[in-house]
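Cross-check.
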Amino acid sequence: MRSAVIAERYAQALLEAAGGQAGTLIEEMGRYPSEDIERLCFLLTHPKVPKERKEALISGLSGSSLSEKSGGPSDGLLSRLLRLLVAKSRVGYLAEIFRIYPDIYRKGKGVSSGRLTVARPVADSTLNGVRQRLEALLGCQLELTLREDPAILGGFVFSTGTILADASIKRQLERLTERLQSAPLN
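Predicted model, tokenized:
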């Protein structure tokens, strides 16, 4: 739990430092697969890697937004974050910071993310209708990730970090089966 709090504080500070480029920073973070972040964290936390080599590793990430020579709108922000994390011996939080940052950004903009699971491809008009109804119920804008799962048979399953709405045919059939099994026989 403590690690999530620490990572959230760093992510919040990064958001404040990014200012008007906060959205661009999300795109830049998305360019780094979690495996690359894990390898980078390993190298930057390894006790046998000297500080000079760690600094060279951060500076040598040429052609990426982590490099101060990138020319991007958030020049050097991620490299400064890495240097700070190395100096504070908190590089292990980097992956968590990358995971939390977009959520904090969206929350500040009044946008929540959610996943909508459907049984088969859905027309855009239907998807927009479902999105509008969910936004009205939740009172915020939604950024939906669409997923197909034929196992739900029909309907949809909507989930966020704290909400689960299962309106699938599969769940309705399960409820009906439960009612029939618990019904008294006369």
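The longest strand covers residues 111-118. The radius of gyration is 22 Å. Passed to J.P. for a second look.
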